[in-house]
């Protein structure tokens, strides 16, 4: 086995020691005693009471009664995957972290993606920030990058975190609503904390509705430090960008998916890995030299601010590939414990007051969630680097420390283990000079709450702006107290006067008395998901295409498209009224993958209707087929139709879109691609695939409202 493979597989090999998949012949108790029965409890007579001495029964029930552990107070709902990370080039100039030096080395990782607000059983597609937490099992110990898919945060100081979470979680009297910020207590909090204006803009944008965990960015959010072997430090912010580009769902769609397939993002991640479409993310850093700390119009320690990429470019330093699903959700995804304080030599903290609080909170929360101080011994949390110290005992201790050396310094164990020097690989904190009075205060620059909220707003495309306004209408529209709605309008009047007027219209509040707004006119390209250079629109890998058909469909058209879709890495499902086989116009057969009851447009990325008189005439009679088209259109998805298939589009509510009339001309209008005489289909397939790669066609939204 090559050295490389050993690196990549080391975590897997470690986990292997704990896996249990042998075929045992007999059921036993937890004491290894063979059980004679797992169906019937021990009773005093056939109709008598159950006996206390039935230890088999008691053990089964007791274990079952204790199966649950507390869910995470935030980020309760999540999905994990294993993989590896590889750096592109040695980074010794910036950091001494060993896993960032050797491009041949593959460092094992475990990643957990999550929503923040919902309970463990809540739906995946709610409007929310997504967690993006990565554990690197490096040779120097575990390094955790506990980030989100949004680069800023709601608050500037960790002291406020409990208030934020209480306000956004279901209200305390009735536990309503689940997994939603659209309620009075949250917007009351928002209106009283101008520092969250910037974050709210992001949360109401399409970023909060990712199409897939594989198609969203990740950010370390807080400012950290890189420190090189010479002890030189630089401020850094961490970034992930998905190789599939950044793509979102639309709001109406997310709500429907929450009912039709609440596991949408979890399923997507799992299936992509099972199919070999391994999610990949590039890792990047923005760096600021210490001498430049005060050269920005924002405070670089403020977690409500981005470092605009035009000013501080991202250096892309490596790539992560997720290539293995967990074996057991509870053992791995549920029990994995992240902590921003898990760092390795070469990576250090800044004085960002949010980060400083986080450094405390995560270890503390694991104590209650995982039941004591030994959670680092749970297989998924174990580092690959050896552990040796003087910590002893506590709940669920696995390690059997031999001998008498449980203290330092000692002579009974030759004084070992002993502290290491920096040269020997010890973590030595960065010797930052700190000098100040003990005060409860923030730096003055932290008070600029609105400039970057305006920067974000300026950077949006028209469709993105419209989505944000509509999100305000939903979120604030749900607030019962008119005073809170008004306070929100007045707060956002500080960002942009026109935005505030729009919010007021939909949310049932008065327009601001005096139109206000931040004077910032600047834009920053990569803040926009649509314009960002990190959004790729050249691939349809792992996209799902629905093919609507009935008996009499054109086999040649379906097969020709299916072949190129699958060849390009997409997945195609044939959908019809019933499952079973369909007969084509020329007597061939095709299997139906899903019926209308199971399949719905919202879980597909695109729809195609092949020709065939009889098939299309049947589909015209199917309300579900017409609805499929209308809904896909409403959600701005690519729609393709060939030959008589175009007639189904004419029968739907799609208006004001040019459709092919006759001949071989391919008409592509706002993502609707049609041709009457497809010939061999080759050209149509190409244009349709390009439309799918565009993801969504927002130009439809302007005028056309389709009921669906
Ligand atoms: Fe946090 C979990 C990300 C601020 C306290 N946080 C948690 C997770 C992620 C983040 C991704 C889930 C990890 C997993 O999958 O298990 N949190 C962030 C980011 C923040 C942030 C990017 C802002 C920069 N968090 C934050 C603050 C505090 C916490 C200010 C408290 C002072 N976060 C926690 C926690 C959690 C947590 C209570 C709950 C479960 C857990 O830690 O393991 O400690």
Secondary structure layout:
Elements: H1 3-16, H2 55-65, E1 78-87, E2 107-115, E3 130-138, E4 141-148, H3 161-168, H4 184-192, H5 197-203, E5 218-219, E6 224-227, E7 233-242, H6 251-260, H7 264-274, E8 280-289, E9 315-324, H8 330-334, E10 347-349, H9 353-369, H10 451-459, H11 462-477, H12 482-492, H13 497-507, E11 544-548, H14 555-567, E12 571-576, E13 580-583, E14 589-592, E15 594-595, E16 606-609, H15 613-621, H16 623-634, E17 639-642, H17 645-651, E18 667-669, E19 672-675, H18 682-693
Helix pairs in contact: 3-4, 4-12, 5-10, 11-13, 12-13, 15-17
EC number: 1.11.1.6
Keywords: Heme, Hydrogen peroxide, Iron, Metal-binding, Oxidoreductase, Peroxidase
Catalytic activity: 2 H2O2 = O2 + 2 H2O
General description of the model:
The relative contact order is 0.09. Helix content is 27%, strand content 16%. The protein has helices spanning 3-16, 55-65, 161-168, 184-192, 197-203, 251-260, 264-274, 330-334, 353-369, 451-459, 462-477, 482-492, 497-507, 555-567, 613-621, 623-634, 645-651, 682-693, and strands at residues 78-87, 107-115, 130-138, 141-148, 218-219, 224-227, 233-242, 280-289, 315-324, 347-349, 544-548, 571-576, 580-583, 589-592, 594-595, 606-609, 639-642, 667-669, 672-675. With 708 residues, the protein is of the alpha+beta class. Among the domains are: 448-527, Up-down Bundle (Hemocyanin, N-terminal domain), CATH 1.20.1370; 544-700, Class I glutamine amidotransferase (GATase) domain (Rossmann fold). The radius of gyration is 28 Å and the shape is globular. The chain has 18 helices and 19 strands. Bound molecules: CIS-heme D hydroxychlorin gamma-spirolactone. CIS-heme D hydroxychlorin gamma-spirolactone is lined by residues 72-75, 78, 112, 114, 131, 133, 146-148, 153, 158, 161, 221-222, 303, 337-338, 354, 357-358, 361-362, 365-366. This is Catalase.
């Amino acid at each position: 086995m090559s050295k490389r493979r050993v690196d990549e597989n080391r975590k897997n090999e470690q986990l292997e020691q704990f896996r249990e998949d042998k075929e045992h012949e007999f059921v036993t108790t937890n004491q290894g005693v063979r059980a004679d029965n797992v169906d019937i409890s021990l009773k005093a007579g056939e109709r008598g009471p159950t006996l206390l001495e039935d230890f088999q029964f008691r053990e089964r029930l007791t274990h079952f009664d204790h199966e649950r552990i507390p869910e995470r107070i935030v980020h309760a709902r999540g999905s994990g995957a294993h993989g590896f990370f590889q750096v592109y080039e040695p980074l010794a100039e910036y950091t001494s972290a060993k896993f960032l030096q050797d491009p041949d080395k593959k460092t094992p990782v475990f990643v957990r993606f999550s929503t923040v607000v919902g309970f463990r059983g809540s739906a995946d597609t709610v409007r929310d920030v997504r967690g993006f937490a990565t554990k690197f099992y490096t040779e120097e110990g575990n390094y955790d990058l506990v980030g989100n898919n949004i680069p800023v945060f709601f608050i500037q100081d960790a002291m406020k975190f409990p208030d934020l979470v209480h306000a956004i979680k279901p209200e305390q009297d009735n536990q309503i609503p689940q997994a939603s910020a659209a309620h009075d207590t949250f917007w009351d909090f928002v209106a009283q904390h101008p520092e969250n204006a910037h974050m709210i803009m992001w949360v109401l944008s399409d970023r909060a509705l990712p199409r897939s965990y594989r198609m969203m960015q990740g950010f370390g959010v807080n400012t950290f430090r890189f420190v090189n072997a010479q002890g030189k430090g630089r401020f850094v912010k961490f970034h992930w960008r998905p190789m599939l580009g950044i793509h979102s769902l639309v709001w109406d769609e997310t709500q429907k998916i929450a009912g039709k397939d609440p596991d949408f993002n979890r399923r997507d991640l799992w299936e992509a890995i099972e199919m070999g479409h391994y999610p990949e993310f590039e890792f990047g850093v923005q760096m600021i030299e210490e001498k430049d700390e005060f050269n920005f119009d924002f405070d670089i320690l403020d977690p409500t601010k981005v470092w605009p990429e035009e000013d501080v470019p991202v250096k892309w330093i490596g790539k992560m590939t997720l290539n293995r699903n967990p074996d057991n959700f509870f053992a791995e995804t549920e029990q994995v414990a992240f902590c921003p304080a898990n760092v390795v030599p070469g990576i250090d903290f800044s004085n960002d007051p949010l980060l400083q609080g986080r450094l405390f909170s995560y270890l503390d929360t694991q104590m209650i969630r995982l039941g004591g101080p030994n959670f680092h011994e749970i297989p998924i949390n174990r580092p690959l680097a050896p552990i040796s110290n003087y910590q002893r005992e506590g709940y669920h201790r696995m390690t059997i420390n031999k001998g008498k050396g449980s203290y330092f310094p000692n002579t009974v164990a030759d004084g070992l283990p002993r502290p290491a020097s920096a040269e020997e690989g010890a973590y030595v904190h960065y010797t930052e000079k700190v000098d100040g009075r003990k005060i409860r205060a923030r730096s003055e620059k932290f008070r600029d709450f609105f400039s970057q909220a305006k920067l974000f707003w300026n950077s949006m495309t028209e469709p993105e702006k419209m989505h944000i306004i509509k999100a305000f209408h939903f979120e604030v529209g749900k607030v019962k107290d008119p005073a809170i709605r008004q306070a929100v309008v007045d707060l956002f009047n500080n960002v942009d006067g026109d935005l505030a007027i729009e919010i007021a219209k939909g949310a049932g509040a008065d327009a601001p008395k005096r139109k206000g707004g931040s004077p910032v006119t600047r834009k920053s390209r990569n803040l926009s998901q649509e314009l960002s250079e990190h959004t790729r629109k050249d691939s349809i890998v792992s996209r799902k295409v629905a093919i609507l058909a009935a008996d009499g469909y054109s086999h040649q058209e379906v097969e020709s498209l299916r072949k190129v879709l699958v060849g390009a890495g997409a997945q195609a499902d044939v959908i019809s009224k019933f499952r079973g086989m369909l007969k084509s116009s020329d007597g061939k057969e095709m299997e139906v993958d899903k019926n209308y009851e199971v399949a719905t447009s919202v879980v597909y990325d695109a729809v195609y209707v092949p020709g065939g008189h009889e098939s299309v005439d049947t589909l015209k009679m199917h309300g579900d087929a017409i609805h499929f088209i209308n809904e896909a259109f409403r959600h701005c998805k690519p729609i393709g139709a060939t030959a008589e298939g175009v007639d189904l589009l004419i029968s739907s509510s799609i208006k004001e879109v040019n459709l092919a009339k006759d001949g071989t001309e391919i008409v592509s209008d706002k993502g609707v691609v049609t041709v009457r005489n497809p010939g061999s289909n080759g050209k149509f397939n190409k244009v349709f695939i390009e439309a799918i790669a565009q993801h969504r066609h927002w130009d439809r939204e302007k005028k056309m409202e389709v009921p669906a």
